[in-house]
Amino acid sequence: MPLPFPRIALVTCRPGPRVSVDRDLPVLVEALEAAGAEARAVVWDQPGVEWEGFDLALIRSTWDYSWRAEEFLTWAEACGKATRLVNPVGVVRWNADKRYLGELAGAGVPTVPTRYVAPGEDVLELPSDGEFVVKPTSGAGARFAARYTPGERDIAVRHIRRMHAEGFTAMVQPYMWGIDARGERALQFFGGRLLHASRKRAVLAPGVAYDERKVAHPGLEAWEPTETELSVAGRALGAVPGGAEQLTYARVDLVDGEDGEPRLMELELVEPNLFLSLHPGSTARVVEAVLGAAASWA
Q1: Which percentage of the chain shows pLDDT scores above 70?
Q2: Do the beta carbons of residue 138 and residue 66 sit within 8 Å?
C-alpha cells in the first residue's frame, strides 16, 4: 500500500559560479507535494541531515560532484545505508567514472571510440587524421573538456598533464562530426519507460580552452527518437551491471558515427538534467515513478 505521506529528499548541491541552476527542482518539489508527499530539496553535503528520516533520497542536481568524486561517493554509501538512494549506490559508483564506456563497448554496445590515459602513463600518440576531444573520466557540463586539431597536439598534451596533476584520468575521443549534422540526442527514461527525448547542438567549439565554462545544452529542442536510437539505448541500459531493472531513471546520450548510425556518447545514471522545462507534460510521470519508488522502500 502506498505511503500516506512519503518523505522525499530531492538531492542537489550548493549554488555557485561553476554550477548551473536546476530549474526543474522547484517544479518537482511542488508537484510531489501536490501529490501528497513531503518533499524538499536537500544539499548532499549539508551537515546534520538525518537521511534516515526520508523514505527516498532522489539524486537530482548534485552537479558539483565531479570536483569531489570520492567525497560524493562516500556520502552516497552512507545515504544508501540510511534510506533508499535512487539510483542505488552501486550504479552511482560505476557511472561516476566514464571508463564504463569501455565496459559497454566490450559488451557490444556501439559507443564513441575512447582511449584512456591515466595519471603516470605517458601521453603517447594522439589522433593525427582529424579533430579529437580530450576530457576527464569524471566530469559534468563539459568541464575540463576541449576539442583539438592535429596541429594543436602540444596544447592537448598540456591539457592532459594538467588533468593528471589533479588526479584525473583523461579520455581521448575522435570528434564526432555527426554532432554538427544532427546534434546529440538525449533519450530520457524514468520508471523503466521512455519519458521523452531531446536534441542539443555541439557543446565544444574550436579554440575554446578546456578551463572555460561551456553552455551545457545549446540549442535544446524536443526530439522524436528513431527505432535505431531506441534499440541502442536499450542495449546500453541492458548492459549496466546488475541490469536495467534497478534504474529509476537514466539518460542515454547518442551521436551519429561516420556510418550515420547512432553511438553512445554517455550514459547518465547519476544526476542527469531532466529538461522538464522543455517537456512539462512529463512531470506527472516522474512524480508517479518517484512515489512508486518511495512506496517500494517502505
Answers
A1: 94
A2: yes
